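User: Sequence in, structure out. Go.
Assistant: Echoing your sequence, followed by the structure tokens.
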Amino acid sequence: MTRLAMMLSAVALLTGCAGRGGDLPLQSASALGRDRATPVDATYQLGVGDQIALTVYGETDLSRNYAINPNGTIDVPLIGTVKAQGRTIGEVSGEIRQRLSEGYLRNPSVAGTIVTYRPLYLLGEVNKPGQYAYQTGMTLEAAVALAGGYSYRAQQKYVLIRPELGGGEAKVEATPDLAVRPGDTIRVTERLF
């Protein structure tokens, strides 16, 4: 095999292995289906792995923390199963208020808050890939710091993000202030040179 043929084969192999995702077009953060410039807000959709606190005024037996089950629901005393996955905390609180008022409590007051968000995942060229707890207002810079920083082979110009609640993987510019969300899978690819 000639020297030129061997070099071309090596480049093709490196491009195929290291690029995975490099052939995707660079997109703005808004292409991920939600505004990445702002932290998680009242429109946040709950999912498996989130933990919420529900307070029913005057009812200590009903006021407690609830973990969202693998089937996307919570089990509330008196009323049973309530769908939580894909809904906001306000929607879940509203349904619980409605169902409690149907024969259990007179004019119940229900407030809900998110106690713990589901984790996010950092994969690829970071020093400690894995699952990490989401913290309110977390940015890409903070998430990479939790994972021990970029490896020496990391492509630091962009990352690949797959949101948990729909959509495929998107190639997004890796700005330090890029907001990450609970359930995101963030993949840092290897640079070619």
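User: And one key feature?
Assistant: The longest strand covers residues 110-116.
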